[in-house]
Specification:
Blueprint lengths: L1 E4 L4 H12 L5 E4 L10 H6 L7 E3 L5 E3 L1 H8 L10 H30 L10 H18 L12 H10 L13 H14 L6
Parallel strand pairs: 1-2
Antiparallel strand pairs: 1-3, 3-4
Helix pairs in contact: 1-3, 1-6, 4-5, 4-6, 5-7, 6-7
Length: 196
């Protein structure tokens, strides 16, 4: 399997982390999104949406969208709960991540980290919604060790990607004790170095 991705992208790192955690063999094909490498004719054949990550399976089939990819790769593993309702709760978090977390936390990070904007230049509505997303996670993680209960699932992998670097987008996590605990525990389970 080949993973086409950019290691600066949390969405790409999700795929790498799942493969590493489950010891799935892969080759990493670096794609520099800032240089427009997702817009080449060759890449567009892999993913017409011109986004990373994308994977190419050994039989030539391709799959895009980070949460769809990790859902496919982790089938039959401990990262997906066996219980149908718990699985649905995991999916609830996966859908929520792309709609209510990533557009705010990740976008603010991109603007500060890559476009060198100051926190004062960020869209206040994006910042407000980013903090609302972090608060929702804090509320859940004050009750359960991980987002869907006692063990790490794809919900945690997905949301860890940008939450662990939220400070790079100007988000202060000092008042989020449960969230900070969860980041540390998730990094430990996935054998990741602490976020910088």
């Amino acid at each position: 399997m080949k993973i086409y991705g950019d290691t600066n992208s949390g969405n790409c790192l999700k795929v790498k982390w799942v493969c590493d955690h489950l010891a799935l063999p892969y080759g990493w094909i670096a794609v520099d999104t800032l240089k427009g490498e997702t817009r080449t004719a060759a890449f567009l054949k892999l993913n017409g949406a011109a986004q990373v990550p994308a994977i190419e399976l050994d039989d030539g089939r391709t799959l895009a969208q980070s949460n769809a990819i990790i859902r496919y790769l982790a089938r039959g593993s401990s990262l997906i709960p066996a219980d149908a309702f718990a699985q649905a709760k995991m999916d609830e978090w996966l859908f929520w991540e792309q709609y209510s977390h990533e557009p705010y936390v990740a976008v603010c990070r991109f603007q500060m980290f890559y476009l060198n904007k100051q926190a004062s230049e960020l869209d206040p509505e994006k910042v407000k919604r980013g903090y609302a997303a972090l608060a929702r996670m804090e509320q859940q993680l004050a009750v359960t060790p991980f987002l869907v209960g006692e063990t790490l699932t794809l919900a945690d992998v997905s949301l860890l990607a940008y939450t662990r670097v939220a400070h790079e987008g100007g988000f202060d996590l000092d008042g989020y004790a449960a969230l900070r605990r969860w980041i540390g525990e998730s990094e430990k389970v996935l054998k990741l170095p602490p976020a910088r």
